[in-house]
Every structure is written in C-alpha cells, then in structure tokens.
Amino acid sequence: LVKRGASIGANATIVCGATIGRYAFIGAGAVITKDVPDFALMVGVPARRMGWMSRAGARLGADLVCPIDGSRYRLAEPGRLEEMP
C-alpha cells in the first residue's frame, strides 16, 4: 500500500506487504523491507530512516519546520512524526 503523497525513487524495491506512509520519501535504489512511517526519508539497502520530509517535499532540519511553507511538525513518539495544526 502506498499512501497519499509518497515519492518512490527509481529502481527502489518494496517487499510485498510493506506500507509506505503519507508523504514518505523513498530514495533511488532503496530496498524497503518493512512498513515506512509517514513523512520518513528512507535510503539504503536495506532502507533506514535518515530523516524526515515535509508535506511540501523538503527535508526537515532539527527544528522540524518546513523551509518551503513554514509548516511545523512534532515527534508524536519515537519514530513517528505528525503535523502540528
């Protein structure tokens, strides 16, 4: 299942049964072996989370503020990001 807004790079491999979260970004050539959380930036073989992406498609820094549209995010729990209202 690939949820709304997810981006998958060229030659990425997604193992059957894995879910790609909303607005997640899968790097080119990455191998996804398990579910990907919303807004995650995944790269490598096997893929690991290397950061977070915004709904606008920009990589988020430590402050979790989108440099494109200024939207704010927060860590809801370890490994899970959510948009702030």
How would you characterize this protein structure?
The chain is mostly beta strands and 85 residues long. 0% of the residues lie in helices and 31% in strands. It has strands at residues 7-8, 13-14, 25-26, 31-32, 40-43, 48-52, 73-77, 80-83. The strands form three sheets. It has a four-stranded mixed beta sheet with strand order 1-3-5-6, with no helix packed on it. A two-stranded parallel ribbon has the order 2-4. β7 and β8 form a beta hairpin. It starts with 6 loop residues before the first strand and ends with a strand.
Using brief descriptors, characterize the structure shown.
single chain, 85 residues, mainly beta, four-stranded mixed sheet, globular
In DSSP terms, counting alpha (H) and pi (I) runs of 4 or more, how many helices? Answer: 0
- Describe the largest sheet: 4 strands, mixed
Strands ordered across the widest β-sheet:
1-3-5-6
Q: Judging from the principal axes of the Cα atoms, what is the shape?
A: globular
How far the N terminus sits from the C terminus, by CA atoms, comes to: 26 Å
Strand content: 25-35%
* Percentage of residues in helical conformation: under 10%
Q: Which structural class do you get from the secondary structure elements?
A: mainly beta
Low-confidence parts: none
- Order of helix and strand elements from N to C terminus: EEEEEEEE
Overall pLDDT:
96
Strand runs, count: 8
Radius of gyration: 12 Å
